[in-house]
Amino acid sequence: MTPFFVMSLLFGLTFSQTASLCAPSEYIIHVEKRECAYCLAINTTICAGFCMTRDSNGKKLLLKSALSQNVCTYKEMLYQTALIPGCPHHTIPYYSYPVAVSCKCGKCNTDYSDCVHEKVRTNYCTKPQK
Question: May I ask which residue range the UniProt record assigns to the signal sequence (predicted)?
Answer without folding.
Answer: 1-16
